From TrEMBL:
GO molecular function, one term: RNA methyltransferase activity
Protein name: RNA methyltransferase
Short name of one Pfam family: SpoU_methylase
GO cellular component: cytosol
Keyword Methyltransferase applies: yes
Keyword Methyltransferase: yes
GO biological process, one term: RNA processing
Length: 246
């Protein structure tokens, strides 16, 4: 996986996780690069990462993005978190809001949802194994590198995942047009919000497993919001309530 961009590299350096399997980090070999890029290169060297230089054309060929900002990270694979580890984390924290994505397929939507989730203080994201976008270089870029800040897990059965979360004390809320207005809901400290496929929404069986169905009221002439826009609204309402309205 080839990642690009200075913000993405900063997130990786700030995280400093052993879970990240970085093969090498390539910087442009152009003369008179910015002080910012030189400082990033120095940080990489201090961390012991393998650092190489290459012409801008090679960086483009690797990441297929002209705006690579002079840096490309060669990452072996994205470090997903086991679902069981997310459950274990939730047992040690009183406030633990979660995101469940039921077959969200567009990488840009996934990246935007990740960015909103981190910004709103969500504690984990769970996606389905089949018919779902996975974390790619494009997703990391859209998330501005924030994909490395939040545990992301892949599960094979979302309906069963909902049941497990409920057994662990979570209340689960599925977003759908026919639900109760989201602002009328008093969210608990352990809430999981399910967002569905861009075209079909949350699947029937998954929706039936949820404790509540919630909606975002809107004008009659408007069909629905983009799933990433809906996610941001719901995440920040949850944040508002869990932080005491601040």
């Amino acid at each position: 996986m080839y990642l690009h961009g200075r913000n993405v590299l900063r997130e990786i350096l700030d995280l400093n996780s052993k879970k990240l399997k970085i093969k090498r980090i390539l910087f442009t070999n152009q003369q008179n690069v910015s002080k910012e890029l030189e400082e990033l290169k120095l940080r990489c060297l201090k961390r012991g990462y393998k650092v190489d230089e290459a012409p801008p054309e090679k960086l483009y060929n690797l990441c297929r993005e002209k705006k690579h900002q002079g840096v490309v990270v060669d990452l072996k694979e994205f470090p997903y978190t086991d679902f069981e580890d997310i459950i274990e984390l939730s047992r040690n924290e009183s406030v633990f809001p979660l995101v469940l994505l039921d077959t969200v397929q567009d990488p840009h939507n996934l990246g935007a949802i990740i960015r909103s989730a981190v910004a709103a203080g969500m504690r984990g994201i769970i996606i389905t194994e089949k018919s779902s976008a996975k974390v790619t270089s494009a997703v990391v870029k859209v998330s501005t590198g924030l994909a490395f800040r939040i545990p992301i897990s892949i599960v094979t059965n979302m309906a069963r995942t909902v049941e497990i979360l409920q057994e662990e004390g979570f209340w689960v809320y599925a977003a759908s047009m026919e639900g109760e207005p989201y602002f009328s809901i008093e969210f608990p400290e352990k809430a999981a919000i399910i967002l569905g496929n861009e075209g079909e929404g949350v699947r029937k069986l998954v929706k039936e497993k949820a404790d509540y169905i919630i909606s975002i009221p809107m004008e009659k002439e408007v069909d629905s919001l983009n799933v990433s826009a809906s996610a941001a609204i719901l995440f920040f309402e949850l944040r508002r309530q869990l932080s005491g309205g601040e």
